[in-house]
Fold ATP-binding cassette domain-containing protein.
Amino acid sequence: MVDRLSPGPSSGLLLRDVCVDYGRSPVVQGVCLHATPGRVYGLLGLNGAGKSTLFSAVLGLVPFGGTITVDGHPVDLTQVGASINGPALYPHLSARGNLSVHALLTGTDPARIDEVLQRVELHAGRKRAGSFSTGMKARLSLAMALLTDPPLLILDEPQNGLDPQGIKDLRELIRSLAAAGKTVVMSSHQLGEVAHIVDDVGILAGGEIRYEGPLTGLAEPGENLEDAFFRLVRNTPSIEGEER
């Protein structure tokens, strides 16, 4: 069952019939989804469902068929903040040093650095990123995605490596970003945690969208969210080369 989201025909992130092939093997097949400003969209699926591949297509990292637009226009990467496939950091630099390089490369006012460090609550001083814990690296990766103040955020498993307090902080941050009018798209295979954050969901299984719509419409009468999720993804093979 696919329940298309309707508000704003071209606002936010819109995918129409997106396909990605690795060689002769289809990885993503005819995906349509719509993530709108002011709401958090959860792209959910088991490991190997195609989530990371789909994000890579949005960011132009892999060739794809179909169309992908942001606010009705082809994707302009200056309007997208992304954290996918783990943080890409300079291990010999501090958090501030990493953000300074990113600010230079993107033409961003360095004054934003203190703001985003405070927002993600990363207080690492001069400690080098190579010695950060997994949770600290996740916070820095999120800070880098926020640095340019983009209207669209793509977050691949952003809660990975965070302790319970960090997950709570992340939840509040993501909700505040959506409340400020940003389009936030996050992936996860942890339905229980995502249920506290997202407004809308797309269930991806075997490279296809099995459901898209409000989280509140996912479960059928008598089902809980977990039952509904596994009903939709049951008996779908994982995709070769896709880890998440």
